[in-house]
């Protein structure tokens, strides 16, 4: 169990957003990956809805609220780092809705959570008024906690086929005005797009690290506050697993083991005595 309590982690997470310095917040998908990432010196971690779903043998958007809350509790128990939660739409149709989801995540040890505007059932982006109202409910719930969590308002346009930066900015401003402490539009891929968002919203901005996108140093140079990896680390790990297994099956060789994690790295993360 972590020696750092939820109150300390919430305070530290708020401090990370208040300072004018970028921090990188990678996304583990299970206890082992969380411990490995924490051992490397990152200042915060975040869950990934896709990576966690894959670890359960599910597709993204198929994880239940109970499964997510248990996952958050398991990660919060093994690392002292602040943990941000990819909580999708905050389960508005579950008992108690968005507010109850926030309460459950806080109780599980989260230091932050997010709420997004994509409706998987309808396969569309919510109307901005509906999405902003949901952000307002989440903001009231997060900010009324004894140890307030950081709430991130997410616009899913650019990973859902809506490449409209003006609409994205208008949505992020609406989510900010509804009470979001941080805003995030995964899929923004150029410094010009990202700079336009930062100049418009005047609150901390999270950016998703992309293979062909700006470097962390470039993102820092334009004022990005937070960089996350989404499901990319999980996808990369599963890619290595598939490539190794396919080599073993088709060629009968084990060259894949040459790129394996060292025993020292695993021992340091999993038994740091």
Arithmetic mean of pLDDT: 96
Low-confidence segments, given as residue ranges, are none
How is the biggest beta sheet arranged?
Answer: 8 strands, parallel
Annotated CATH homologous superfamily: Phosphoenolpyruvate-binding domains
| Quantity of strands, as a count | 10
Number of H- or I-type helical stretches:
11
Strand order of the largest sheet: 1-10-9-8-7-4-3-2
Percent helix range: 40-55%
The helix-and-strand class reads alpha/beta
What does the radius of gyration come to? 19 Å
Under CATH at level 1, the class stands as Alpha Beta
Distance between the termini: 14 Å
| Count of domains | 1
Write the CATH architecture name: Alpha-Beta Barrel
Query: Oligomerization state of this entry?
Result: single chain
- State the CATH topology: TIM Barrel
What gross morphology would you assign? globular
The secondary-structure element order is HEHEHHEHEEEHEHEHEHEHH
What portion of residues belong to β-strands? 5-15%
Write the layout of secondary structure elements.
Layout: H1 6-18, E1 23-25, H2 31-39, E2 45-46, H3 49-55, H4 65-76, E3 83-85, H5 97-108, E4 112-116, E5 118-119, E6 124-125, H6 128-143, E7 150-154, H7 165-177, E8 182-184, H8 191-201, E9 205-208, H9 216-221, E10 226-228, H10 232-250, H11 263-270
Helix pairs in contact: 2-11, 3-10, 4-5, 5-6, 6-7, 7-8
Question: Features of this protein?
Answer:
273 residues; alpha/beta; TIM Barrel; 8-stranded parallel beta sheet; two-stranded antiparallel ribbon; 10 strands
Structure characterization notes:
- By secondary structure, the chain is an alpha/beta fold.
- It has a single domain, classed as Phosphoenolpyruvate-binding domains (TIM Barrel), CATH 3.20.20.60.
- The protein is built from eleven helices and ten strands.
- Strands 1-10-9-8-7-4-3-2 form an eight-stranded parallel sheet. A two-stranded antiparallel ribbon has the order 5-6.
- It starts with 5 loop residues before the first helix and ends with a helix.
